[in-house]
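1st attempt posting a full record on here, be nice pls
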Amino acid sequence: MSNLLHSYAAVDSMDSGVMSRSVYQIMAPACIARRDDMKVRTLHDLYIKEIRDLYSADTQLVAGLPGLAAAATNRELRDSITDHVKQTNGQMDRLEMIFEALKADPLGHECLAMEGLLKEAADFAQDVRAGPLRDAALIVACQKIEQYEICGYGCSKTFANLLGYSEHIDLLEANENDGVEADQFFNQIALERINPLALLSAASSAEPL
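the predicted structure (as tokens):
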């Protein structure tokens, strides 16, 4: 597994219960280019570009998810996000198998979309006080992340099928299914537990008229 991980730390402020922006540091490794100069002239080129984007996204997630877990206050949510780090490592392993088969370099591209999604998650952690309301906000961020990955892996699977890379399809589908299962879990915990608690906590903290 690649060691090209972004540093992404999270610690709650002791006095306010609000995440400090200063502890969220997202630093792109020097060996991952900010700009991808690969020319896309064929569907094969587009396929390579897309799985590079997913590899970069997963690289950022492996580093970013522990910060989201630290920001969560609900234990079930925190444990699920932590477990998803291992799952994302597995996704990267599968992608590396594809790159090896293609004799292609997984590096050279940075997923700016995932960078933005993780920044948004950091903003939620900083702006929303610890508790059910922050957990609800983090679930929003996590579900956006999963939907991005589901779309990317689904499209890549379609490209692999058209290009005749049948051996890639199961690997990409496994990654897509990881995203679907995670999204379903986040949706369930939000509807059944987190969102109702967030509503109650917001009502109890509202200032009297």
